[in-house]
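[Meeting: bench + compute handoff]

Bench side (C.D.) handed over the final construct sequence. Compute side (W.E.) agreed to return the predicted structure before the next meeting so the bench team could plan truncations. Sequence as handed over:
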Amino acid sequence: MQTHRQMPRLFGRGALALVIGAYTAYTLGPFLWLATMSVRNTGEISANHYAWPSPVRWEQFRIAWVDSNFAAYFWNSALVVVTAVAVVTLVGAAAAHALARYRFRGNRVLYGILFSSIIFPPQITLISLYQILVDYNLYNSLIGLTLVYISLQLPLTVYLLEGFFARIPQDLFDAAKMDGYGDIEIFRRIVLPIGMPAIATTLILNFIQLWNEFLFAVVLITDPEKRTLPIGIRAFMGDHFQDIGMIAAGVMISVIPVILAYAFFSEKLIRGMTAGAVK
């Protein structure tokens, strides 16, 4: 009798495992295909798109990193993105805490303005941002691109964190004030530790978004020495010829930081995305 009861459960688990396996193969397959192409040259790829690398050309990565100046592109991206994400995270968390916890005139108006900036696509601001950067001598500079990235990601960060911070019990703040904590100490010792799952979520989302950003970088940066990684990869795409092997190697180099960031913050990312789902 008990065996008959276990049969539907085993069948359900088997079906679930099959679906998960199929989805994993579906998502992992293109990445593995890209990895094999990154250690083959364009001639070998053109002859057979799906062949296994033989021989394995590890020098593709050396050529991309050294000869094709990918090292400079990588560090340009790292400098711009890490700085922008750090500023967006700190300023966004402070602004979200202020909007969620303090009631002042214009609170909801300011929140509405931030929310409205999320609704419209950021591409509509491209021309105005270009003109502003030119007027302030920030066009074609990594500082100007960093400021643009901060302005792009700050509204969404504030919007996401404000909803999380608003659920922190008021009793914690009242107890902290009774212990003599000031506003900055409350933010540093209570809000940041409790809100770390949500902060980690916005951090990794902003990092992935900015690391792969192309449109603003290609318009606002013209100096080859200041290119970010997505623009550097585009250099291998011509009108009549594309170096597919080098493109694959460049993409693999650009993917590594994203994988490391997700591996480091994955647990906090899942906790932040599911926060509030279970009371």
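W.E. noted at the follow-up: The chain has a mean pLDDT of 84. C.D. will use this when planning the next construct.
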